Records
---
Amino acid sequence: MLHVSTRGEAPALGFSDALLTGLARDGGLYMPQAWPSLTADTIKGFAGTSYADVAKAVLGPLVDGDIPATDLHRMIDEAYASFRHEAVCPLTQLGDNLFVLELFHGPTLAFKDVAMQLLGRLMDHVLKTRGARATIVGATSGDTGSAAVEAFKGLDQVDIFILYPHGRVSDVQRRQMTTVASPNVHALAVEGTFDDCQNMVKAMFNHARFRDELQLSGVNSINWARVAAQAVYYFTAAVSLGSPYRPVSFSVPTGNFGDILAGWVAKRMGLPIDRLMIGTNANDILARTLHAGSYEIRGVEPTTSPSMDIQISSNFERLLFEAYGRDGEAIRRLMASLNQSRSFMIEAAPLARIREEFSAEAVNEANVADEMARTYRASGYVLDPHSAVGTRAGRGLLKDRPEVPVVALSTAHPAKFPDAVERATGIRPALPPHMGDLMERKESFTVLPNDQASVERFIRERARAVKGVAA
Ligand SMILES: Cc1ncc(COP(=O)(O)O)c(C=O)c1O
Ligand SMILES: N[C@@H](CCOP(=O)(O)O)C(=O)O
């Protein structure tokens, strides 16, 4: 299976090459050339099967033999053995037809672990097989960075540089990135927003000389393998609720659009999903876009769900590519308009296609707090603020179609955001025992200005992949 770029001008690549490449050379994002389809019988057979076995069945046709099945299966088994819950991503009922899919039982307590635990193993495997090295650069609003540091720490083939917005992530998130004493891990606190960090990472990929010198690779959801691995839990959740014979909707707290896109991929592969609800916090660019058809960047507002404080929602480009009938030239036009005027208009036909499958709702800060408080009062269940965006938006879906079960994705453990949770519920959630001493561990990070050249200079000086290459 080849993978094509959303901007239509980069070479098509197999799975392993797309995995190492990250951002396509034309600035676009890789997608499989065609969607493999799982039959209703295959999906039905997932009932009662382990998470790892469902992952093998879903990812097998996407990897399509590019990594030998025995290696892929071993890595999947190892990745999901690192989770603290036997079901890996368990489902809990919160109310009539409202369910919570807990995605935070991995090592860093956020949904990013589900893909990252596998991605780390896949990249290490492909690099070792090729005798190659990589310099990973990533942007984070808190969770991708922690999960990536955990998955890549100590690997010989890789140096990892994580850019996060200085002062805009929670203490737990920051400490998960800054207290890992491993020589290949570098936490960079950039004086800017998450969008600045993400723009810088993309600019590094678009800087051909830097990219080639350092053998850059990416672990953000620009990396197709991240999205592919996240599609698996849509299958496990829907099957527990009666799929493929019963449609299920999903409500997803959304920022960079990777997680909800994974649901859309599951649907393309044959899972009968009814609606996909985009839940945003007060940074509501996607909700505005779905309602008005115009994608307009405004300033980022800090909220209690900082991991979703995003305006430039990277993976939306993948959905636009499909909605525009895989027309790379149309996507280049939209992205050029975004660069020039910080906005673009979606034409009527592609917008209608998007609205056929997606709904969107913005949840303001008062309602996030109310959702955490009301859920705790009604059921004793403690949500983190990101997950509260998901359940609140999910309740909106149920009002329209109460007969269709709604699964709200719970993307982080409440202990990652203890202050907001305590303010809303009076409960201060404790970190699990393996992280009990996190607040006492010694931190190490570098503060850098919001400036491309300074960040590139820092990375070039520290990366081992560049050693021996003429500057
Ligand atoms: C806890 C949490 N919830 C939700 C999101 C939003 O997910 P996505 O960026 O895939 O839309 C993020 C960040 O990615 C996150 O860290
Ligand atoms: N919320 C994310 C932002 C980056 O998203 P990604 O899925 O593209 O890696 C984070 O926690 O860093």
---
Amino acid sequence: MGFVTDSILINEEQLKGKVKEIGLQIRHDFQDEPIVLIVVLKGAFVFASDLIRVIDGKVTIDFVVASSYGNQTETTGKVRLLKDIEVNITDENVVIVEDIIDSGLTLSFLKEHFQLHKPKSMKVCTLLDKPDRRKVDLKADYAGFVIPDQFIVGYGIDYAERYRNLPYIATVKEV
Ligand SMILES: O=P(O)(O)OC[C@H]1O[C@H](OP(=O)(O)OP(=O)(O)O)[C@H](O)[C@@H]1O
Ligand code: HPA
Ligand SMILES: [Mg+2]
């Protein structure tokens, strides 16, 4: 028993087009203002590396490492913050960069955590949004693709630490 990749849900070309769209939208919304992008590792590392190259102007980047899935396809319900930010976000415009919002638990934990630093503004940007499995009420300010209730991998996103290197988003199936 295990999981293998099944079919391609979002291909490379679709990803590229959407990432550009989101990047341009973010820059348009903030105009010349500086922004701090906080990338949620590990999953968002591929998305973020493409996204930052289509947002021009004053951008600072920092990372957090948050984990709640481990080797399973359901959230454990417990978000562990394995690495915190290092830059100062007080009075800054923060954009949190996520690969996927599923139950919403990771982002709701992180939003509350960052709010303690009193940023000037805080927005959420996610490549994928899976609204069917929400456990907390949470909406992204920038969302790339709304996806159905299926476990997906690729473009940075894993199942049990595998498949992050796929250049596309694929569904997985149990075999
Ligand atoms: O909305 P949620 O149900 O909280 O799910 C979303 C989070 O889960 C995944 O992280 P994971 O815990 O797998 O860590 P990883 O990024 O290191 O793979 C994903 O990368 C998001 O950060
Ligand atoms: O569908 C998913 N795939 C991989 N990791 C995830 N973390 C939340 N949802 C998912
Ligand atoms: Mg994961």
